[in-house]
Specification:
heterotrimer; A mainly alpha; B alpha/beta; C mainly alpha; A: mainly alpha; about 80% helix; about 0% strand; B: alpha/beta; Rossmann fold; 10 strands; globular; transmembrane (chain A)
Chain lengths: ~450, ~230, ~170
């Protein structure tokens, strides 16, 4: 198989395929831009002594490391979104790759098609990452002094860009190759579909243990250990909670809840992963919230004017929001994908009166009933953990922080619910297509 | 005079490019079995979709158990369809995430029945169609024939006045197809449901009391077989 | 009609009276015309003359209905040979339908009305064939399936023929 055939086979065909490719390319481009930003900050060496006005986040080496870590984390989030994009369109793509197998392609050739398909997305994303980074850097330069957390780009960035392109292309290709799509010619039950619960339970328990153990000691490590603990616990428990929630909804007498629940139960792992990310974002926001209350109380109102704290909070908040949006987009794309996959079955329900509006309600329930609790829980965990540190340090503000966290969590949950409900509305085109009677014609 | 289970009067339907039905009139008496046959593309499926209210006839009227579908408000129309019409397609009509029991219980739940009662009724039907042992399985774990059996159960669980079947045996082998046909007929007979079968298969059409043959969107002939 | 070979087949499982042979035949083909006693005995005596069956027991009172027949080795061989031989592809009663359709078209009669009548009659016959309850061990369903599928083939031929005729009419117009 020569390269031309490969690219021909990997090229997106349908409008869904093109949408998936667009999402993949955008996510990779974002990841690339964050990576470029990270390397720029890491290369930055100027200090206060240089005398020109710059953000203390760049000037202080300790804080600078934090900015680099944040950039890498954001790149990681964007990569997660890209990975999710790769997994979209499962049924249709699987069928196509399966026909490739039937046409005589070896498993390796099918994997190669997957790798080239993803690699092309990585390449395009990497190429776009450069301009995106320069636009981002230029935009940051326009901000007031303390908020300029990104130094002005320089010629070395032009060298880093091709490196990023190669890196992203290779990473995407490896991910595409590892997806094992279309290699199974028979629709058997995924062997991993049954035993996953225990694995996730163990991961979650390890995370929980880490949180509990780390809050027994109190030093600088605590915060990192707790972060890791929250990540592990969320990744482990979220899919289990989704499955549980799905089962509970599935047992409901309300058929629309039943439909939503059954779908959740069968997509517990991908949905759970995205919810874990939401919980983590909520956690970050919770910490920021509690920290703000704490500073407000201890510094007697100075914080409002302090550009240092404002910048920090604004950026952490923005980054958490970005990650939350990425998770939301992935959830939404996955839901759209489901609707496409199941259109024949859904159209068949129209005889019973499950039409466009009912289906849209079911989709909305799926989104709101998962996203809103995830955000709320995240805010509670983040805010709660920080407040508990305050409590142990015997700061007087801990009580107030708890209250604010509680109010914030409820508000955050409500906002998340509204956003999820609005997002479900975006899917009405897909819902309409899914219930179209045309899907019932047996061609 | 007993009410007709279904009456179509000069029904017309056109897709964007081609006309599928050019004024089709058809009457189905309660408990009657009618086969709608014809070459592919003759409008068979469109006729069935219009009759079942999946598509809205663009001209002409459709009466389901004496009620004019076009004159009813949407909610009543849906309720009428849900309780009075069952549908069996060639394949792929069961929700893949739901167990057979939940799939069959779905119309009852939508009708507002209690969950336990709906599931009991569903189980009873699954037993009648011979897949009670697989009641907890999801469609993807079962064969096409088993899924079609569940589909028959779902179409009949509400005790409809009429069941519409679109190539119900189309993706099955001869033997499984015969079993599904016998099941459809006997199940429809139990509840006194009329049955409209769309098929291109003469051996399936032969089960009917009457054949309605379509060609290019018009009825070519109607013959009694009983 | 391969009555001789069928009688050999009916003796395949062991010696039998002429009466058993008749009964066996009627059980194998319940939908066909029953085999007449006279035909059974003339066939058996012809087979005995040719050395394909032999008499193994004349019974106490004699008489044909008490005589027990069995296959000879040659008879067994003849049966196996007959079973191994494929049937010549041949057209049977279909002829008449072809002739009728050709005549219908040539005389300008309404071909689609003919189709309707023929479909009605064929489908009725298929329906009758399907309606027969088959008992579990009977092989009669084989015969009924054979007939139903042949009727189906007739109908499909008829459909195709009329489709093509309609097309020709439409294009020549």
């Amino acid at each position: 198989m020569n390269l031309r055939t490969l690219i021909e086979l990997a090229r997106p065909r349908s409008s869904t395929d093109r949408r998936r490719m667009a999402l993949l390319v955008s996510a990779v481009a974002l990841a690339g831009a964050f990576l470029l930003a990270g390397q720029r900050v890491a290369r930055h060496s100027a200090t206060y002594l240089d005398g020109w006005e710059q953000s203390s986040y760049l000037a202080e080496p300790g804080l600078r490391q934090g900015v680099v870590v944040a950039a890498v984390l954001m790149a990681g989030t964007a990569c997660a979104l890209a990975f999710q994009a790769l997994r979209l369109g499962t049924a249709a793509r699987d069928r196509r790759l399966t026909t490739l197998r039937l046409a005589g392609a070896t498993p390796n050739q099918v994997r190669l098609v997957g790798a080239v398909d993803a690699g092309l997305g990585g390449l395009a994303g990497g190429i776009l990452a450069g301009p995106l980074y320069f636009v981002l850097a230029a935009a940051v330069q326009a901000l007031p002094g303390e908020a300029r957390v990104l130094p002005a780009p320089n010629y070395l960035d032009l060298l880093a860009w091709p490196v990023a392109i190669v890196l992203l292309t290779v990473l995407a290709a490896i991910a595409g190759r590892s997806l094992r799509r279309g290699l199974v010619t028979e629709p058997t039950v995924d062997p991993a579909a049954t035993g996953w619960r225990t694995k996730y339970l163990v991961i979650g328990l390890v995370g929980l243990a880490l949180i509990v153990l780390s809050s027994m000691v109190f030093n600088l490590v605590t915060i990192f250990a707790q972060t890791a603990g929250v990540v592990l616990a969320a990744s482990g428990f979220a899919p289990l909670a989704v499955a549980r929630h799905g089962r509970r909804l599935g047992r409901s007498g309300d058929p629309l809840k039943m439909l939503a629940g059954a779908r959740l139960l069968h997509t517990a792992r991908p949905v759970g992963r995205m919810l874990a990310l939401l919980v983590f974002c909520g956690g970050v926001a919770g910490v920021v919230m509690a920290m703000a209350v704490d500073l407000q109380a201890t510094s007697g109102g100075v914080i409002q004017d302090d550009p240092f704290y404002l910048t920090g909070f604004a950026f952490v908040g923005l980054l958490a929001l970005f990650a939350a949006l990425a998770a939301g987009v992935a959830l939404l794309a996955g839901t759209a994908d489901d609707l496409l996959d199941q259109r024949r079955q859904l159209a068949a329900l129209s005889v019973f009166g499950v039409g466009e509006s009912q289906l849209l309600r079911s989709v909305r329930r799926r989104l709101t009933s998962t996203v809103a609790p995830a955000i709320t829980i995240g805010l509670l965990i983040g805010g709660g953990l920080y407040s508990s540190i305050l409590l142990r340090a015997e700061y007087s503000s801990s009580g107030r922080a708890f209250v604010v966290v509680l109010v914030g969590a409820v508000t955050g949950g409500l906002v998340a619910w509204l956003v999820a409900a609005a997002a479900a509305f975006l899917l009405r085109g897909q819902v309409r297509e899914a219930v179209d009677p045309q899907n019932l014609r047996s061609a | 005079m007993t009410e007709l289970a279904l009456e179509l009067i000069r029904v017309e339907y056109a897709y964007r490019r081609d006309v599928a039905l050019r004024g089709v009139s058809l009457q189905v008496r309660p408990g009657e079995v009618v086969a709608v046959t014809g070459p592919s593309g003759c409008g068979k499926s469109t006729l069935l979709h219009c009759a079942a209210g999946i598509l809205r006839a663009q001209a002409g009227t459709v009466h389901l158990v004496g009620q004019n579908l076009a004159e009813l408000p949407e909610a009543d129309r849906t309720r009428l369809r849900r309780t009075q019409a069952g549908v069996v397609l060639q394949f792929g009509q069961l929700v893949p995430d739901l167990s057979l029991t939940d799939n069959v219980a779905l119309p009852l739940l939508l009708e507002g029945h209690e969950r336990e009662a709906a599931r009991r009724a569903a189980l009873g039907w699954l037993e009648r169609v011979g897949v009670a042992d697989d009641a907890a399985a999801t469609p993807s774990e079962l064969s096409g024939g088993q899924n079609q059996r569940a589909a028959v159960a779902r179409a009949l669980v509400t005790g409809p006045a009429i069941v519409f079947a679109d190539e119900p045996t189309g993706s099955l082998d001869t033997h499984a197809g015969e079993q599904i046909m016998e099941l459809l007929l006997s199940s429809a007979r139990v509840g006194g449901s009329a049955l409209v079968i769309v098929t291109h298969d003469n051996l399936v059409a032969a089960y009917a009391d009457r054949e309605v043959r379509l060609r290019d969107g018009v009825i070519q002939h109607e013959v009694s077989l009983s | 009609m391969a009555t001789a070979e069928l009688v050999l087949g009916l003796l395949h499982n062991g010696p039998a009276h002429g009466y058993d042979v008749k009964r066996g035949h009627d059980a194998w083909f319940p939908d066909s015309r029953p085999l007449a006693f006279g035909q059974v005995y003339t066939t058996l005596s012809r087979l005995e003359r040719d050395g394909l069956v032999e008499v193994v027991d004349r019974g106490s009172e004699g008489g044909p209905e008490r005589t027990v027949y069995a296959l000879t080795p040659q008879g067994r061989e003849h049966l196996a040979h007959w079973l191994a031989e494929p049937i010549q592809p041949a057209l049977g009663a279909v002829d008449e339908m072809v002739r009728k359709v050709v005549a219908t078209i040539r005389t300008g009669e309404d071909a689609s009305a003919f189709l309707a009548r023929q479909r009605s009659s064929h489908l009725r016959r298929i329906r009758e064939l399907k309606a027969v309850e088959s008992d579990s061990d009977s092989s009669s369903w084989l015969v009924r399936d054979y007939m139903a599928l042949h009727l189906d083939a007739d109908l499909r031929w008829l459909d195709n023929a009329l489709d093509r005729i309609t097309e020709q009419k439409e294009t020549s117009r």
